[in-house]
Amino acid sequence: MLLRWSAPLLRCAGSCAGRQKIITIEALGNTAAGKLIQNARRELEVVQCGYCQCGQIMSAAALPAQNPHPSDADIDTAMTGNICRCGTHVRIRAAITLAARNAHGDALASKAE
Known about the structure:
Elements: E1 2-4, E2 7-9, E3 22-23, H1 25-28, H2 32-43, H3 53-66, H4 72-78, H5 89-103
Antiparallel strand pairs: 1-2, 1-3
Helix pairs in contact: 2-3, 2-5, 3-5
């Protein structure tokens, strides 16, 4: 998965021609959106096995730019196609909410249990 103009795109599903801005998981940590989601995931201890981590982070990093105040339903829609084998969906959603709030200067979300 990569971000093309801040929108998630499966690498095998789209062509990347011309001068489009492409961000991979390796470069995402150097962006503001990447730092926000990575910090939120660390703070809420989202990661367990790591199976889904790359796809989850790429999809999550794109969401706040597209929707500054995502609802749970918005997050679920944005994360469709990402599978978490550990069942940390509640923490994944909480981390995305926290990152979106931090991106827009809102109060911090409470930690997920």
